[in-house]
Amino acid sequence: MRSPSCFRARHLLAVALVLLAGTSCRVRPAPAPPPTDTARLYALLLNGGGLPAQNYQSHLLHVRELRAMLTRMGVPDARVAVLTSDGDDPGQDVAVRQTQPEEEFWLLEGSRLEAPLRTPIVYEDSTVEGTVLAPATQAELRRWFDTAGRTLTSDDTLLLYVTDHGTRNAKDLGDNAITLWGVGESISVRELGALLATLDPGVRVVTVMSQCFSGSFANLPKARSGRELPDGKTCGYFSSTADRPAYGCYPENRGKNNVGHSFHFLDGLARTGQLEEAHREVLVLDATPDVPLRTSDVWLEARLTAAAAAAGQPLNVYADLLLRRAWKDQGRFEPDIRLLDDIGRAFGSFSPRSLAEVEAQAQQLAASGGQLRQHGKAWDAALDSARRANLDRFTTAHPAWRERLAEPKVRDLPQPEARALTHDLLADLGPATRKDTTTSNRLRRLRTQARTAREVSYRMEVRLGALLRMRTILLGVAGRVWLADDATAAERDAWEALRRCERLVVPVPGVRPGAELARPERFPALEDDVELADGVLPAWMGIQFRQATDDLRAAHGLAPGAASILAVYPDSPAKAAGLQAGDIVVGPPGRPFQERDQVREWTMLSEVDTPAPLEVLRDGRPLAVTLLPKPMPQKWPKLAAPPKVGAPAPPLRLSHYRGDATAAVAPGSPHLLFFWATWCGVCKASLPELDAFARERGIPVVAVTDEGAERLDPFFKSHKGPFPPIVATDTDRQAFLAYGVSGMPTFVLVGADGSVQSYAVGYTAAKGLGLDGWAWSKRPAAP
């Protein structure tokens, strides 16, 4: 669900609260420049699509939305060009994915009937209301630059929008490509830069690109001008880094509209008219793995990387040294910190202050997501085998259906006949499967496990994307310290020129009537997903196997599910049970495996630490063994995330500044942790109510900050009014990480039993401290 206020509104609220508290805000965002004159604004909208099957409808919807928005802005039609797929050719060129009408079609997935009986993709002709389309080819792009492009003059602005697929250049990530229309058609960074170079050098080009690996096109300034330092005439916004796919490449998003970078960006632009503001909103609201960034972000990281190499240090180490300088005066970077906090809260994460913190979390998330993907594939494989076996049993028991489903008869069926056949088949197969309760329960459990593993794996990837967004913000802070202290004047001028270019403002077009943006649901807490992940961990036996050959089964009279052991892993349950390579697994005593690969399913569904007897053959002789299945080896991430209410409070390791924090947080002592900062005006606004809570409840408040004495001493010399007597410092941020702090102030109430009783972030006069069971009589009533 969308946060009730965007960054701007949150900042204004913070300013108001600071003024109420009798202080002044140190940082205010620079005022937005005036809107660009639409008479000087041109737009080039590009969607190549490649081929019809991969030319997704969502791309066309993006183009239509932006085209309508430009009209509402007042941009003349003659200044807007749309190059999409095959242009005005009436052929069907865009894929409209159809939902499967049969609810139980999943029983056929993974079988030979899935492909011939699945509802096919429907194709339509690309159209954009009131617009003559041109084909998205290199030839047409060149034609536009040779004609319309040559009419642009100095001080004109070209908005270049791309919603498409992108390809990664493994040899040079600085020269990735955009997919165009047709087999092998594409345009790379260098090729597009050469086209931009044909424009008047004074034309400002601002790109918005949502294709995979789009961050590579942050190199367009150099590709256009040939200069090492950008001149501020070419810049843009991108859905992801040069080495990462965008949201459309994830199966979880296929067939979905109104999700991802492009839709959120256009939604923000429609309401604010500011590309910069739209970018900030995407960072917080886009619940996909995208890592949105700007040209200035990529350029600044490249300069930091070069500076780190010159200093003989890794980038993370070098940048963290710069961040330490920055955090000596965190008030200078309050908007960046607030943005970090907003992203952390949106994705149930912490708010980092160093690249070391991000790196540690990112490595664990990537590893866990990879493991979950592998588990998902294993559950899918077991489910496919079980579905195929179920279908085989059904057709064996129903000869008429075996005849109707013979390979030649189902291949290339006309759609009406395929739909009728599917309906009739599932009308018989569904009840037959449900009647066999053992098989039905197996299938449903396998399906649930596979789906849960995929969903949790995807959310881990989203969390990783959120961390990488925060990494970009931190690098931006470090880069600005480097610019101020270590860069040349020419480098500072180049960065300022890029930032001016990126701050494109257009007349606010307003949201198109009827346009609905999918609002993300509240992102699940990491602890909840870890609990789900534990539930999909398959039991582990520790063998590598293959199906026993027909000759081997015939020689020993074995059932179809017998499996030959190829290898036994060290320190595995199979090794402990004495299994060896060359053994043949028959199945549980008296219940030989009847289905191909059934040993996999049996292992995965076994109860952990519950003895599981098996019959095997060794050198042709029967042998009884008992395994003790163990959980699949896995270490889930210990990420910094807010503790759940009711969970044990994480241990604290604090340094004393004033008062006795050790006694206040000792076991058996209820206490309220108040995470704050000297620059945080909202924290100061909460102090009167915080003081009232401590007095009325008799519960000590421990004020925890990551700032040192050099910041605290002058603050307390000038601070007037109430403040908790116990102040502790956490300069290594272990407490901030342990409690998943993603915004200040944060209030954590810990009970006498050591459990978290309440956890609240932020403060307003109407909401108060947000502690369960607490109401302050002097707090203003909510309107």
Walk me through the structure.
By secondary structure, the chain is of the alpha/beta class. It is 41% helix and 14% strand. It contains 26 helices and 24 strands. A six-stranded mixed sheet has the order 2-1-5-9-10-11, with helices on both faces. Strand 23 (746-750) and strand 24 (756-761) form a beta hairpin. Helix 2 runs parallel beside helix 7. It is globular. The model is unreliable at 1-29 (pLDDT under 50).
| End-to-end CA span | 22 Å
Secondary structural class: alpha/beta
DSSP helix count? 26
Number of strands: 24
Biggest sheet layout: 6 strands, mixed
Strand proportion, as a percent range, falls in 5-15%
Percentage of residues in helical conformation: 40-55%
Poorly predicted segments:
1-29
Give, in spatial order, the strands making up the sheet with the most strands.
2-1-5-9-10-11
Radius of gyration, taken over Cα atoms and rounded to an integer in Å: 31 Å
Mean pLDDT: 89
Overall outline: globular
In short:
The protein is 41% helix and 14% strand. A 6-stranded mixed beta sheet has the order 2-1-5-9-10-11, with helices on both faces. Strands 19-22-21-20-23-24 form a 6-stranded mixed beta sheet.
For this entry, give a set of tags.
783 residues, alpha/beta, 6-stranded mixed β-sheet, 24 strands, 14% strand, disordered N terminus
